[in-house]
Structures are given as structure tokens and as C-alpha cells.
Amino acid sequence: MQGVSVVKADITTLDIDCIVNAANSRLIPGGGVDGAINKAAGPDLAKAMMAIGRCPAGEAVITPGFKLRARHVIHTVAPVFAQHKEADVWRLLANCYKNSLALASKHDIASIAFPSLGTGVYGIPVERACNVAVAATRDHMRGSRVPAEIVFCCFSAGDAALYQEALR
Ligand code: ADP
To answer: Which of 130, 56, 64 is nearest to 99 (CA)?
Structure first.
């Protein structure tokens, strides 16, 4: 059965087929979860990202995971909260989850973990972002059984509690 769960962890340590990166639109390795993923994957990941070159907000691209336990990394770009009308923020953030899951489905990925996209330096309030994440994920699950396992990987206990609540 298809399942959704929440864990509090460093996403780079997960034993899972694919992790999602909160990348920037130029696909140049940055800080936050992007920095942690690049550090754990090794320098080949940055080369693969820069070879793709660009990814607009809401879209997603895929690379290998290199030294990570995850075989794949899907890079998606959240909207910067301060740079869009609020309605566009929610639409673009939902697209991040939808397009990442569609790409995972296309690559027959069985298990995938998302960080709390957009809620770090991009400034999206996590209290609302978690509901958008859950709604977009449920939307995908209505049309596809792949990936079978979807994990929201939170870096703090507070964020994990919010995603748990959103799932209920
Ligand atoms: P964005 O630029 O999309 O806001 P950030 O990387 O700044 O992305 O933050 C997104 C979320 O990822 C934040 O909740 C942050 O705490 C979390 N985060 C940072 N490092 C890790 C990690 N190693 N594993 C999981 N989540 C992380």
C-alpha cells in the first residue's frame, strides 16, 4: 500500500531511493539542505546540476545521488516568498511537489523523501507550506501508485509536528 510518513532527520542519512533537494533556479549548490546534500554526495553532484544549468520555480530535474545512499536526487526550486504574489507562492510550491512526484513516478522510484521545501532561507511560512505539501502529495497519489513510499523529512521536531498535523 502507498504510504506517507513524517520523520525528523538529516535527509542525507536516509536509506531511501530518492531524496529531493531544495535547489536554486541556477542549480548552483547553495546553503541549507542543498549544501548538506552536495557535501554528502561529493563534487560530482554539483557538476551534474551545473550541466543541467537551470530550473525555474515549481519545476524539477533529476540527477544521480553519487556518494549518497539515495540513488537519485530530484532538484526542485521553491518560490522565494517575498518575490511573488501569495497565491503564486502556493501554486508554485504545490508544483514543486507535483512535478517532483511525477518525475519520480516516470523513473519508477519506489521511495522518496522531501525536505520542507521553501521554508528555510526562501521564507515560506512552514505552518501553511506543510498543508500545501500534503495536499499536493495526496493529489499525486490519487493518480499514481508510484512512489509507494513518500516521506516528509523535517530538520526540527517543531516542523515534524506541523507535517504530522497536516497529515491528520
Ligand atoms: P529553501 O531555500 O527552499 O527555503 P532551505 O535549505 O533553506 O531551503 O530550507 C528548507 C528546509 O530544509 C528547512 O526546514 C531547513 O531546516 C531544512 N534542512 C536544512 N538542512 C537539512 C538536512 N540536512 N536535512 C533535512 N532538512 C534540512
So the answer is: 56
Q: Which fold has domain 4-167?
A: Leucine Aminopeptidase, subunit E; domain 1 (3.40.220)
Closest Cα to atom 8 of ligand 1: 120
pTM of the model: 0.98
pLDDT of 144 strictly over 70: yes
Question: Among 16, 12, 24, 19, which Cα is nearest to 49's?
Answer: 24
Active site residues: 34
Distance 34 CA to ligand 1 centre (A): 7
Structure confidence at residue 1 (pLDDT) = 61
Query: Domain boundaries in the chain?
Result: 4-167
Provide mean pLDDT across the span 94-114: 98
